[in-house]
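Sample intake — Copper resistance protein D domain-containing protein
Collected from: Achromobacter agilis
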Amino acid sequence: MLYSALKFVHVMAVILWVGGMLFAHCFLRPAVAQLEPPVRLRLMASVLGPFLNAVLAAIVLILLSGAAMIGQEAAQAAQTGGAFFMPRSWTAMAAGGLVMMAIYAYIRFVLYPRLNAAVAASDWPAGGQAMGGVRRWVGVNLLLGIVIVAIVFLG
């Protein structure tokens, strides 16, 4: 029962993160592209702040639930006298997740503050550059997230 609850939390946090990136990258971004730079950049900065905070909470849940599930599997193997070998798909998921977290950290702690500073200063060219970086790295992270999900479910 505990394992199922942990898996539920893990998957829901991944859905929030990857689904949010999909929505922002494929639906929100093209829709706001029609707006003038001051309006577009203010809107995106306003939307990204709460989303990035939610993703930070999701990352904590993903790390905790993932570690707990691996720990449960390892403990069960030890109790039965066997050895625990993490499946390749889990190893790929963990490694890919760590790469995604590093990219998230770059977006959250480098690019997003640049965007906020540019918006506060009404420096629209700098804001556009920062937003371009966010767009690019969210695209990379979205692709990684989709590949990881595919590896886990198909591998």
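Post-analysis note: The two ends are 24 Å apart (CA to CA).
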